Amino acid sequence: MENGHTGKHRVAVIGSGNWGSVASRLLASNTAKLPSFHDEVRMWVFEETLPTGEKLSESINQAHENCKYLPGIKLGTNVIADPDLESAVKDADMLVFVTPHQFVEGICKKLVGKLRPGVEAISLIKGMEVKMEGPCMISKLITDTLGINCCVLMGANIANEIAVEKFSEATIGYREDKEAANRWAKLFTTPYFLVSVVEDIEGVELCGTLKNVVAIAAGFVDGLDMGNNTKAAIMRIGLREMRAFSKLLFPSVRDNTFFESCGVADLITTCLGGRNRRVAEAFARNGGKRVF
Ligand SMILES: NC(=O)c1ccc[n+]([C@@H]2O[C@H](COP(=O)([O-])OP(=O)(O)OC[C@H]3O[C@@H](n4cnc5c(N)ncnc54)[C@H](O)[C@@H]3O)[C@@H](O)[C@H]2O)c1
Ligand SMILES: O=P(O)(O)OC[C@H](O)CO
């Protein structure tokens, strides 16, 4: 697959929160170096007005920094913030979805009929839609709404650590199209971000989704000062339940996927340092009442 205009792939990132900004930075460092990609990474920004009165997208383009979601880190001059969704994706043939999961359906509906032919997608979103008919994976939502192939990238990836180039691993899950998955792996791999590829899209995506539930339990354990042994038990039993639940939803899910970065490693990092753990700890320490 090649982009018709220049022969180079063009990347757009849909989302500019903490992980969206870090992913854009990482991708832009690679597109600047790899000859098969156009330098520029367009990053769609859900527009906000900052306390200074400035628009977030303008501030990003001026300072090359997302002062709200990733303060203190330069994104690279080739990351261009764009508050107009249609304009952000119009030339792209590689789309990275990285918004909170609850916004994806609305975004996809706005993109119907607006994409170039042959576009490929990848989802970095850890979550699922729960509909009346049952759970729906985000990659499937993207594929069904837009009629495009969609891989997933999950892993032990606390964004603030990747922002300062601390070593991390990640797992790309794909269905059938290994060539597309390898292209994504090339685009994401850096010396500090090591990506592996597995043919188990549901397994990889469910790991990224379900570990959040276990992390909340781990946060309760911390908030109740129950100790490390109890927390380890929660993580072990949680991993076993993640596997059982995943296989119940998709019998094709592979055991080995739970030993990739997207599985046990993401579970550990989220239960140690993730936001889901933190929020649950704060809730428990506050006697089960809302903190904010
Ligand atoms: N932060 C991490 O360390 C991390 C790591 C791996 C995966 N993830 C996953 O990445 C996804 C995105 O998380 P994040 O950390 O980049 O976001 P975030 O929680 O830092 O920020 C929220 C984002 O949502 C945007 N937003 C608010 N209202 C919106 C709306 N109505 N429509 C569209 N966007 C809106 C905000 O502008 C902001 O960009 C999540 O699924 C998360 O689980 C996060
Ligand atoms: O901060 P959390 O809990 O959303 O977790 C962040 C990442 O998913 C860790 O891999």
UniProtKB/TrEMBL annotation:
<dbReference type="GO" id="GO:0005829">
    <property type="term" value="C:cytosol"/>
</dbReference>
<feature type="binding site">
    <location>
        <begin position="275"/>
        <end position="276"/>
    </location>
    <ligand>
        <name>substrate</name>
    </ligand>
</feature>
<feature type="domain" description="Glycerol-3-phosphate dehydrogenase NAD-dependent N-terminal">
    <location>
        <begin position="11"/>
        <end position="178"/>
    </location>
</feature>
<dbReference type="InterPro" id="IPR008927">
    <property type="entry name" value="6-PGluconate_DH-like_C_sf"/>
</dbReference>
<feature type="domain" description="Glycerol-3-phosphate dehydrogenase NAD-dependent C-terminal">
    <location>
        <begin position="200"/>
        <end position="286"/>
    </location>
</feature>
<dbReference type="InterPro" id="IPR013328">
    <property type="entry name" value="6PGD_dom2"/>
</dbReference>
<comment type="similarity">
    <text>Belongs to the NAD-dependent glycerol-3-phosphate dehydrogenase family.</text>
</comment>
<dbReference type="GO" id="GO:0141152">
    <property type="term" value="F:glycerol-3-phosphate dehydrogenase (NAD+) activity"/>
</dbReference>
<keyword id="KW-0520">NAD</keyword>
<feature type="binding site">
    <location>
        <position position="46"/>
    </location>
    <ligand>
        <name>NAD(+)</name>
    </ligand>
</feature>
<dbReference type="InterPro" id="IPR017751">
    <property type="entry name" value="G3P_DH_NAD-dep_euk"/>
</dbReference>
<dbReference type="Pfam" id="PF07479">
    <property type="entry name" value="NAD_Gly3P_dh_C"/>
</dbReference>
<feature type="binding site">
    <location>
        <begin position="15"/>
        <end position="20"/>
    </location>
    <ligand>
        <name>NAD(+)</name>
    </ligand>
</feature>
<feature type="binding site">
    <location>
        <position position="275"/>
    </location>
    <ligand>
        <name>NAD(+)</name>
    </ligand>
</feature>
<dbReference type="InterPro" id="IPR006168">
    <property type="entry name" value="G3P_DH_NAD-dep"/>
</dbReference>
<dbReference type="InterPro" id="IPR011128">
    <property type="entry name" value="G3P_DH_NAD-dep_N"/>
</dbReference>
<dbReference type="InterPro" id="IPR036291">
    <property type="entry name" value="NAD(P)-bd_dom_sf"/>
</dbReference>
<dbReference type="Pfam" id="PF01210">
    <property type="entry name" value="NAD_Gly3P_dh_N"/>
</dbReference>
<dbReference type="InterPro" id="IPR006109">
    <property type="entry name" value="G3P_DH_NAD-dep_C"/>
</dbReference>
<dbReference type="GO" id="GO:0051287">
    <property type="term" value="F:NAD binding"/>
</dbReference>
<feature type="active site" description="Proton acceptor">
    <location>
        <position position="211"/>
    </location>
</feature>
<dbReference type="GO" id="GO:0005975">
    <property type="term" value="P:carbohydrate metabolic process"/>
</dbReference>
<protein>
    <recommendedName>
        <fullName>Glycerol-3-phosphate dehydrogenase [NAD(+)]</fullName>
        <ecNumber>1.1.1.8</ecNumber>
    </recommendedName>
</protein>
<keyword id="KW-0560">Oxidoreductase</keyword>
<feature type="binding site">
    <location>
        <position position="159"/>
    </location>
    <ligand>
        <name>NAD(+)</name>
    </ligand>
</feature>
<dbReference type="GO" id="GO:0046168">
    <property type="term" value="P:glycerol-3-phosphate catabolic process"/>
</dbReference>
<feature type="binding site">
    <location>
        <position position="126"/>
    </location>
    <ligand>
        <name>substrate</name>
    </ligand>
</feature>
<dbReference type="GO" id="GO:0042803">
    <property type="term" value="F:protein homodimerization activity"/>
</dbReference>
<feature type="binding site">
    <location>
        <position position="103"/>
    </location>
    <ligand>
        <name>NAD(+)</name>
    </ligand>
</feature>
